[in-house]
């Protein structure tokens, strides 16, 4: 862990749930590194929550346990709901300030750091996979946004894996599937490809006075998506705007669902049923997260 990340983590109050998470993670056995004998890593879709995820012990434990169940990747490439940008772009290849793209939370979350090793090699790999007509641009001053660094800081708290964020240049499922297909080869070299969103994200429609209640639009959409994924019905998923129950309440805007198509495109067989690793609800929103082989 870099000195800046470690110093920032030491400022978290000892009684805070994330401080306890860090202590548990530090006590875990060494994480076995990926080798070619492991074969390609899966591609992941993660419901990433928000800074309040750092206060949810059960969810943090699920994310960290998931990461530990996989070999430790050589690098991570993540597409987040919170960077919608065309042309296709990469975050800085070197540690930089995080993007604190949220408000109304404890100031401590604006002091968190996640200074991972330089990702120059990964950037070169990604660039080679893009067609000449669609070069990828590096934003040298842009760090990771909370859709990337919040879940990764929980999954890989040592901050010792190179991380790059790739922008989401469109919400067209077919184009995102094609982008995922281009990234598929990265998995064979030990790179973890992640789409980071939220299976349901109807924040304007949450009953903030009854956060234990799961709205029907949230459970209906989640159950529909789970069924379509189990059946490998990629075309149905791609037509979610008109086919999915619970719309548009589950996704008033679609950027938290569409990273799923990068994940599916990066899979060896996009129609093969992925494995759900996390389900259930937080604040009434579906946490469903999955991995595709």
Structure description:
- By secondary structure, this protein is of the alpha/beta class.
- It has a single domain (3-19, 37-292), classed as Protocatechuate 4,5-dioxygenase, Chain B, CATH 3.40.830.10.
- It is built from 10 helices and 10 strands.
- It has a 6-stranded mixed beta sheet with strand order 5-2-6-1-10-7, with helices on both faces.
- Helix 4 (120-129) links the parallel strand 3 and strand 4 (137-138).
- Helix 6 crosses helix 10.
- The longest helix has 16 residues, at 216-231.
- 43% of the residues are buried.
- The model has no long low-confidence stretch (mean pLDDT 96).
- Belongs to the DODA-type extradiol aromatic ring-opening dioxygenase family.
- One of its GO terms (molecular function) is ferrous iron binding.
- Keywords: Dioxygenase, Metal-binding, Oxidoreductase, Zinc.
- Its cofactor is Zn(2+).
- This is Extradiol ring-cleavage dioxygenase.
Key descriptive features of the protein:
293 residues; alpha/beta; Protocatechuate 4,5-dioxygenase, Chain B; 6-stranded mixed sheet; two-stranded parallel ribbon; 10 helices; 15% strand
Intertermini distance: 30 Å
Relative helix content = 25-40%
CATH architecture: 3-Layer(aba) Sandwich
Q: What is the CATH topology descriptor?
A: Protocatechuate 4,5-dioxygenase, Chain B
* Total DSSP E strands: 10
CATH class label: Alpha Beta
Structural class: alpha/beta
> Strands across the major sheet, in which order?
5-2-6-1-10-7
In the CATH hierarchy, what is the superfamily? LigB-like
> Sheet bearing the most strands, described?
6 strands, mixed
Order of helices and strands: HHEHEEHEHEHEHHHHEEEE
How many helices in DSSP terms?
Answer: 10
Shape: globular
Mean pLDDT: 96
* Rg calc: 18 Å
Low-pLDDT runs: none
Whole-number total of structural domains? 1
Sheet-strand content, in percent, reads: 15-25%
